[in-house]
């Protein structure tokens, strides 16, 4: 592994060159700027190569690339931002004054600071291991997120264009247009729910957090996106209550430090440190290093801690994702029918708020399992929801969550064990044949996700076809459920992409005529990536396999998937 100090300096150099390129573009042609930053970046990589050697330079290269391309530089200058604002005003758009204060930013700084401190302590006192790079990635992501929050707080402007019936959110980082015809729900919170909005406290894609104060917060649910705003209390927002949106619900949100939020806060912090990141493991490693505990004992404790986290994963995720039991009287009979047919009488079904269409199973075994659906998924036709529940019921019945975690752990363990044994057996050969070691590392980088995909796709195909046996409509109903889910997902993604606008030529220049469809067979390269590296087979194939086979699970279907996995990955 490369030196930690070199790794951190590499991230700093990447950020610096990213900012340098942004500022130079104001005075120099873009081509010259790219050439200059490329020369400086290559110079740094060469310096590291001479100091650290060939193998250690490989992760350094990735650190540099990630840091450079994720530098939180604005998409436009202040002059360009002013031109956009002037253009909106000329078109008659009314500016909505936002409530702004530093308290909102301080909340993000507090949450981020907790994980940044863990990373810094590990960099200073922890062992030099692969976990360093995961922490460095998290550190960079948090830094980028905080920088954008500061830029958003300072530059965000909100406009309502009455003639278009659209809401514009304009900042140095992006410009979005939200047509009010896509608005499905409006609610008001007494303050921003920062435990829901902070980036590490969410399992799904983050909400559009335009909150700039700790005051009254408007939550707008658009197709494919949820938007949070904090307009000035004196601003009128009645223009949102039109058409079908004739009523506005109000909710009280307690401060995150309120005693009623302590359990929720602890659960989300634990989720961020153990599920979304490795902060808890890094803290343990740092503590054991400072105490002088040996590697064998440390490894044993880390494995036991991982098993413990897997055992309580259902409770942690239930708190972290703010789940609540489904109590819809129209859905309860469907849930009872599907899970009784699967022989699962003690599995709870929950809903978690998200703008995505998704369902998933959680838990180490049947006795500690639950199934969760997103709030958007509950808007699907009941026939489609029944198919999704049947698919997840099979995941629970076959203990796929537990098996998937064990397989992932075993694969990673085998890789590390193999590397260690080779290093111990052939130290001299490795030192004098670094090019072969380099090629071997690249082979492992590709093989590990490919092996994971092999197992997880088999589980998904099995869940599709065994789940179909729980449905009255069999394969046809499961295929229709996946088709409906896919169509809704594609439509939401299309809407979300369409909210981004470009003022350089015309306000909606970046909207594409081509529709997004996951049900269409893509080019061979993208089929190859999906079949060989993704956890799910392509949706077009899953639907086709259900439509063209009988309702059962058999060796023949395993062969069909196995053959398709390779045949569909070839150019044809």
Automatic annotation (TrEMBL):
A GO BP entry is:
proteolysis
Q: Write the record's keywords in alphabetical order, separated by commas.
A: Cell membrane, Hydrolase, Membrane, Metal-binding, Metalloprotease, Protease, Transmembrane, Transmembrane helix, Zinc
Q: What residues does the Peptidase M48 domain cover?
A: 328-549
Q: Which InterPro entries does the protein's record reference?
A: HtpX_protease, Peptidase_M48, PH_YxkI
What Gene Ontology cellular component terms go with this record? plasma membrane
Pfam families cross-referenced by the UniProt entry = bPH_9, Peptidase_M48
Q: A GO molecular-function term, please? A: metal ion binding
Question: What does the record say about its membrane topology?
Answer: Multi-pass membrane protein
Cofactor(s) required, per the database record: Zn(2+)
Residues in YxkI PH domain copies: 157-242
Locations listed in the record: Cell membrane
List where the protein spans the membrane: 6-24, 31-50, 56-73, 105-124, 130-147, 269-290, 296-317, 406-423, 435-455
What is the name of the protein in this document?
M48 family metalloprotease
